[in-house]
Design brief:
Helix 1 runs antiparallel to helix 2 and helix 2 (31-41) crosses helix 4 (66-78). This protein starts with a strand and ends with a helix. It is globular and about 70 Å long. It is 46% helix and 20% strand. The protein is built from six helices and seven strands, in the order E-H-H-E-H-H-E-E-E-E-H-E-H. It has helices at 8-24, 31-41, 49-58, 66-78, 119-127, 147-161, and strands at residues 2-3, 43-44, 82-87, 90-95, 102-107, 113-116, 139-144. By secondary structure, the protein is α+β, with helices and mostly antiparallel strands.
Amino acid sequence: MKIKECNASVMSAVTHILDNYLEMNNHRKTVERYSILKAVYNIDGHFTIEELGDLLTGKYKFPVSRATLYNTLRLFMELRLVIRHRFQGATKYEACYAGDSHCHQICTMCGKVTEIRAPEISAAINELHLKRFRKDGFSLYIYGICSSCQAVLTRMKHTQKK
């Protein structure tokens, strides 16, 4: 998991969304919620609950219970600040402010997930008119075998022939 410094304007916007929701629904503005939001938006790419918990405990010196992480991420998903992916038996999350739609390549052997930009797919989906449905974004999963695993398979094949 890579850490990045979140863009200040993005962080301000997502904090504003959370503030508004909590105020409108008479929920408490807890330090935990804001710490988790900051950590989520400083992770570059996908993360698991365990990785998020480790980041909060390690880098931020702010341990949070597993239940708090699940409940907070569920809230963030309702607010469209986080999206949940299910990659080959693993649940991962990703910050998704501003409808950053993209495609994922998933290796069926090693499970490696790579994000790819495909402007032609994005354009096709943006042009797609759906009846009685408003699109907020999309995620596309492309399954196959990565080049590293292909090389291993090729070596195994050549070894068996000898």
